[in-house]
Amino acid sequence: MTLREQWIAFLTIVRKEVRRFMRIWMQTLLPPAITMTLYFVIFGTLIGSRIGEMGGFSYIQFVVPGLVMMAVVTNSYANVVSSFYGAKFQRFIEEILVSPMSNSIVLWGYIVGGVARGLLVGLIVTLLSLFFTELHIHNLWIMIAIVALTSVFFSLAGFINAVFANSFDDVSIVPVFVLTPLTYLGGVFYSIDMLSDFWAGMSKLNPMLYIVNAFRYGILGVSDVNVVWAFAMILCFTAAAYVYCMYLLANSKRLRQ
Questions:
Q1: pTM score
Q2: Where do the structural domains in the chain lie, given as residue ranges?
Q3: DSSP summary character for residue 224
Q4: What three-state secondary structure class fits 54?
């Protein structure tokens, strides 16, 4: 395929992915908006008013960055895992694999679809948060970079899950038993300064802690971890996930099962 044809193929996959989640927006965009609004009301307004300040900010200001990232992570992951597994289940993945498209075009098409949904949901949640508190962006570029990297990484993770999933139940295992615990224990609702030395050290093994705090630094200018180290970790995880996804596509026997 020529470069132009590869570009057209890439845009076709992206267009399909975006249209898919926009067509069923009541299932993909509305639920996270409602869920996060409930978080803002319950944890931010009702409970937060009793907790007081955290990190020099009101409690609702402190939790907003974590809730935004939680929405980005969940939706980036869900978009790719559901879409690619659907292609396997409906048996049209073979048509993609035997096409002259390169593996990187196929992978990036799904990644950009996941990123688009993650960023759109993240924007919706951020706009909703403005009804409950004021946000002053500390560093716009850090904020954009961490959201983009995070959504790419979890889109890749969703792709890996979809490759190994053999049923729709397998699609939900990782979000329920891995993503949710890591997110809730990743400093979304608290600062690790509140923890004992042992549990603070254990928390630093959680990659979500670095993602949430790097984004919080971009908005509020405060972080429990070194932001440079957070970026380095996310870049390494993303690169490793990308290489593994390309390996899975190159050895596509499992995709045909």
A1: 0.90
A2: 3-251
A3: S
A4: strand
